[in-house]
Design the sequence.
């Protein structure tokens, strides 16, 4: 039987295949636990999981404090690309690292497709 | 406990408490920053004892690490032990954990992780050790929260 982690990693690999701009993707919990990853760049995935958790938690707090309801997406635009974080379910997030010039609309759509699939595995 | 040891212990506890409190204030939970800090502390132990732990299985890393800690008088004999084990998980038992008072304070002051439980310092440190020695991702959860005599599960993902 294929483990849940393996299935999740396959879902992340599929996301990478559908959207080549995705350099890496992780599923992590809001306390920084790395659940699954598919990373194709030189990055410490445990540190990425911790940073994504912090980003996601702070984003939630900002949304709540400013009366904007639940956070849907957090995006960081940098010189060398983007980091996009989306919630899969409470306290579990999908985060991607993207190349510069990525088609963000397409990425968001494909991330949402992956989330629907991942939800069924968790 | 000698005065010097008491002093060092109080510094350690206030530092851990401060880390948890700051994380809660910044992110709403005792979450990634705290977990990372405790795991990194565990990793430092893992690196220090790498030669003596590297060929052990998941559960054996923990068992051998505890033995080393007891031999070096860092851990009181019997205060942390494996209650049961299988290939992918171990149940740990704490008897008079030295962080017990701190954990009670975490619970009283609502310093909890996103799952709504106080963070277990011992669990996170053991995860750091295993992660360094075996490069495995380990999760933890309380089986029983009753400081200083808790039980927790470490599970390989």
Sequence:
């Amino acid at each position: 039987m294929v483990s849940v982690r393996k299935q999740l990693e396959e879902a992340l690999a599929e996301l990478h295949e559908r959207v080549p701009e995705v350099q890496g993707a992780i599923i992590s919990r809001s306390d920084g636990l790395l659940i699954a990853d598919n990373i194709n760049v030189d990055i410490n995935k445990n540190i990425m999981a911790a940073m994504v958790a912090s980003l996601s938690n702070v984003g939630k707090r900002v949304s709540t404090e400013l009366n904007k309801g639940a956070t849907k997406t957090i995006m960081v635009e940098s010189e060398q690309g983007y980091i996009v974080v989306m919630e899969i379910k409470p306290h579990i997030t999908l985060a991607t690292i993207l190349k510069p010039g990525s088609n963000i609309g397409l990425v968001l759509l494909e991330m949402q497709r992956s989330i629907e699939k991942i939800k069924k595995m968790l | 406990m000698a005065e010097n040891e008491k002093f060092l212990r109080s510094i350690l506890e206030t530092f851990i408490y401060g880390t948890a409190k700051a994380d809660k204030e910044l992110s709403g939970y005792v979450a990634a920053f705290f977990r990372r800090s405790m795991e990194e502390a565990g990793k430092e132990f893992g690196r220090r004892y790498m030669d003596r732990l590297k060929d052990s299985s998941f559960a054996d890393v923990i068992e051998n690490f505890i033995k080393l800690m007891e031999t070096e008088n860092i851990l009181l004999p019997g205060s942390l032990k494996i209650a049961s084990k299988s290939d992918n998980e171990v149940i740990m038992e704490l008897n008079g954990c030295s962080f017990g008072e701190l954990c009670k304070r975490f619970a009283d002051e609502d310093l909890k992780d996103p799952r709504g439980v106080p963070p277990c310092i011992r669990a996170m440190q053991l995860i750091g050790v295993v992660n360094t020695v075996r490069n495995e991702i380990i999760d933890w959860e309380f089986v029983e929260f009753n400081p200083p005599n808790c039980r927790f599960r470490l599970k390989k993902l």
Remarks:
- The first strand of chain B starts at residue 80 and ends at 85.
- Strands of chain B lie at 80-85, 89-94, 138-144, 151-156.
- The helical segments of chain B are 3-27, 32-48, 50-53, 58-71, 100-108, 121-134.
